[in-house]
Each structure stands twice: as structure tokens, then as C-alpha cells.
Amino acid sequence: MATRERLKNILATVVTTWLTEVRAKIFGYVLNPIGQRSPNKILWKKLIGESLPKPEMLKRCGKGPPKKGQGKRAAKRSK
After folding, report:
1. First CA to last CA distance, the chain
2. What CA–CA distance (Å, rounded) separates 69 from 75?
3. Where in the chain are the domains?
């Protein structure tokens, strides 16, 4: 009887490890069975460095706010 229970336990651990591997492949997880620290968390973060703020990016594309005195009201008055 003891051998049968051992066999069940071994089979259960094999199935659960296989299931976690398959789950990691399907959902794109990083498998870490040992539990060591990995740099994956750092690699997925946004890059830190010089980046333009949103209003400045919009200005460069020509979609920023109009200059003072050239908005909708000024366009209506000049017509």
C-alpha cells in the first residue's frame, strides 16, 4: 500500500509541474520553479531616461494648443 501512495504522490507532482510549464507557455509567464530572483521584472519596466512630456510631443506634431489670440474666438471675430 505504501508504494501505491508514493507512486500517486510522484505522479501528482509530475502532473502539476507539467501543468505549470504548459500554463507558462500559454500565458507567457516566466517559469521560476526554484524561486530565485530574476531580472525579468526590471526588463519589463518602462525605460528611464530623457523623454518628452506629452504637451511637447503634441506641439511637435502640430496638434498642441494654439498660440494666444489665435483660437476659435479670434477666428470668429476676424470673419
Report:
1. 97
2. 9
3. 1-31
